[in-house]
Amino acid sequence: MKKIFLLFGLSVLIVLSACKKSENPPPPGNTNFKFTSLTAQDTIMKVNGIISITANATGEELTFHWSATYGTFIGSGQTVQWTVCHSDRFQITCEVSDKYNNVAAKQIFINVQN
Can you give 1-59 as a three-state secondary structure string? Predict the structure, then answer.
């Protein structure tokens, strides 16, 4: 009879410990991540001119990745400068990510004239 009570008590203890809530909850919700806009100082510039472009985003530990169909970026982070050596219409893209791996991208077009 003692063995039955011992097994029953041990079973109850195992069930109760398995149902115990985690003491380390997952990180807070990542609902504050938002990439609101991508803006340029102007959308028309001269060849070899320099233009500032800013990505407006909110979130935790943001990372900004810039790319363009052609041209050169100066700087990094939320605001960069961009230049190009010939005329055309160019697409600038910024991809923003946060520490929770949320990712969003936006594009802007710059017309470059002689």
Answer: CHHHHHHHHHHHHHHHHHCCCCCCCCCCCCCCCEEEEEEECCCEEECCCEEEEEEEEEC
